Amino acid sequence: MSCVRSNDVCAAGNLLCDWQRINVALTRAKKKMILIGGVRTLRSVPLLAAMLDTLQRDGCVVPLPAHAATSSQSLLKALQG
């Protein structure tokens, strides 16, 4: 799931603030989910902040290098660990 609302002012926008839409997006995954987005922006939404806290506590958050968005090879390497 791509959260394209990442920005310098951490404004998530209305779509990511709608818990029903978030619920639909998150519950569609059958085996695993990869969520890509800016942590600071996602944390501006209380529901997503709580989810990120849980994911980070469980070691499920993989920080990506700044150039990962422009290089698919960098992204694949980071996700593979």
Architecture blueprint of SSEs:
Blueprint: H1 13-17, H2 19-27, H3 39-42, H4 46-57, H5 72-80
What do you see in this structure?
The protein has 81 residues and is mainly α. It has one domain. Helix content is 48%, strand content 0%. It contains five helices and no strands. The longest helix has 12 residues, at 46-57. The model has no long low-confidence stretch (mean pLDDT 77).
Brief rundown of the structure:
The chain is mainly alpha-helical.
Primary descriptors:
81 residues, mainly alpha, 5 helices, 0% strand, globular
Q: Helix count, per DSSP?
A: 5
Output the structural class: mainly alpha
Radius of gyration: 13 Å
Ranges with pLDDT <50 over ≥5 residues? Answer: none
* Sheet of most strands: none
Number of domains as seen in the coordinates: 1
Average pLDDT for all residues: 77
N-C termini distance = 19 Å
**Estimated share of beta-strand residues:** under 5%
Tell me the quaternary state: single chain
Measured as a percent range, the helix fraction is: 40-55%
The helix-strand sequence is: HHHHH
Shape: globular
Beta strands, count? 0
